[in-house]
Amino acid sequence: MGKSGIRLVGTGDLTDDDQLPGMTDAALGIVTTHHYSALHDSPLNKTYRGNFQAAYGKRANSVSVGGYDGMHLIYEALKKTGGDTDGDALVFAMKE
After folding, report:
1. In this predicted model, what pLDDT tens digit does every residue of 69-87 receive, in sequence order?
2. Is residue 22 a part of any domain in this protein?
3. For the CA atoms of 27, 14, 9, 42, what is the dihedral angle to 10 degrees?
């Protein structure tokens, strides 16, 4: 598509970290954005990737970090509410 002048812009799952190495040169020039990349070079991401690999035997990806972030939010909200699972209390704690 790029050679014909058509520019492809899409969501990050179009060029997922796990799939990108197997894509041909046809993927060159695609512009995507996503909330996570396993290749992000930060100490926190390196720790996350290592812990995820050790726990599950596979590479971290955007789905895994989304699940982690969601569970972290619930955990922190429960700490703030003292374990109260009332929906309104949890949502209020999450908004804080």
Report:
1. 999 999 999 999 999 999 9
2. yes
3. -90
